[in-house]
Task: inverse folding
C-alpha cells in the first residue's frame, strides 16, 4: 500500500468532510463546488485502489485477500454512491451525506492499509 | 378500486435526515454482513460463536435499515424489533467480550461496545429508536 498516497487521500477526505459539514450547518445544499470536491476525492480513492491492486502482483500480498478485495470495492464505490444520494437531496442533508461519506473514507483507507500490512500468504 | 400507493409518512426515505440515517445504517448492514460472510466462509472453526453473532448482527442491521426506510406500521414493527435487538446485542456482546475474551477472540461489530467502529454501533440503536419515537403514529381521538 502506498503510504504517501494514502496519507494524501486521508487528509483530503478530512478537509472535505469539514467543508461538507460546515456547509450543512450553514443550511446550504450541495452545489457545484461540493460535487467537484466529492468527484476529486472519489478519483483519488480510485487511484489509490488501482495502485493497491497493482501492488497485489508484487512480492508481498495481504493474507486476507478476500477481505482486502471487499474493502477495495467498497472504498471505490462509497464516494460515488454518496454523491448520487446527495444529489437527490438538495438540502443541507445532502451536504451531511457527503460529510458522513468523507468521514468514512479515512476509516476505509486505514483498514486497507491494515489488511495490506498483514502479509503472509 | 386501487388507491395510489404513497410512502408512509414516517418512512426515513422521505426526509433528508432520514436519508442520512439510512446511509449510516446501510453502511453498517453492508459492513457487518460482509464481515460475517468472510469470517464464516473462511475461519468458522476458530470462533463459531463470534461469527454466528456477526451474521446475526448483519441481519439485524439489514432489517433495521429496511424497516426504517419503508416506515408505516410494518416498517415500524420491523425497525423497532431490529433496533431493540441491536441495542441489547451491543450491550450484551460488548460486556461479554470484556469479561469472556476466550469465546470471542475475533472482533465482531459489537465487540467492546463497537469500539472497533468508533462506538457508532453503541450510539446507532439509540438514534434509530429516537427516530421511531419521534415518528410515533398520532392516536386520533
Result:
Amino acid at each position: 500500500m502506498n503510504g504517501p498516497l494514502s496519507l494524501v487521500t486521508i487528509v483530503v477526505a478530512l478537509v472535505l468532510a469539514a467543508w461538507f459539514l460546515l456547509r450543512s450547518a450553514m443550511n446550504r445544499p450541495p452545489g457545484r463546488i461540493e460535487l467537484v470536491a466529492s468527484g476529486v476525492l472519489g478519483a483519488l480513492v480510485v487511484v489509490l485502489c488501482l495502485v493497491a491492486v497493482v501492488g497485489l502482483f508484487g512480492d508481498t500480498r495481504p493474507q486476507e485477500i478476500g477481505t482486502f478485495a471487499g474493502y477495495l470495492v467498497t472504498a471505490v464505490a462509497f464516494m460515488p454512491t454518496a454523491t448520487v444520494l446527495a444529489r437527490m437531496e438538495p438540502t443541507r442533508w445532502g451536504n451531511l451525506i457527503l460529510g458522513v461519506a468523507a468521514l468514512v473514507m479515512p476509516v476505509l483507507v486505514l483498514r486497507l492499509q491494515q489488511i495490506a500490512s498483514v502479509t503472509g500468504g | 378500486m386501487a388507491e395510489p400507493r404513497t410512502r408512509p409518512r414516517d418512512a426515513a426515505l422521505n426526509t433528508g435526515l432520514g436519508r442520512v440515517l439510512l446511509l449510516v445504517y446501510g453502511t453498517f448492514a453492508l459492513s457487518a454482513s460482509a464481515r460475517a460472510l468472510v469470517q464464516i466462509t473462511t475461519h468458522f472453526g476458530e470462533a463459531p460463536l463470534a461469527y454466528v453473532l456477526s451474521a446475526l448482527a448483519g441481519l439485524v442491521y439489514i432489517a433495521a435499515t429496511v424497516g426504517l426506510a419503508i416506515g408505516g406500521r410494518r416498517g415500524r414493527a420491523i425497525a423497532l424489533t431490529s433496533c431493540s435487538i441491536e441495542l441489547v446485542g451491543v450491550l450484551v456482546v460488548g460486556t461479554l467480550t470484556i469479561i469472556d475474551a476466550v469465546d470471542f477472540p475475533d472482533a465482531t461489530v459489537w465487540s467492546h461496545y463497537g469500539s472497533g467502529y468508533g462506538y457508532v454501533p453503541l450510539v446507532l440503536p439509540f438514534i434509530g429508536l429516537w427516530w421511531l419515537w419521534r415518528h410515533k403514529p398520532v392516536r386520533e381521538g
In short: Helices of chain A lie at 3-25, 32-56, 65-87, 92-117.
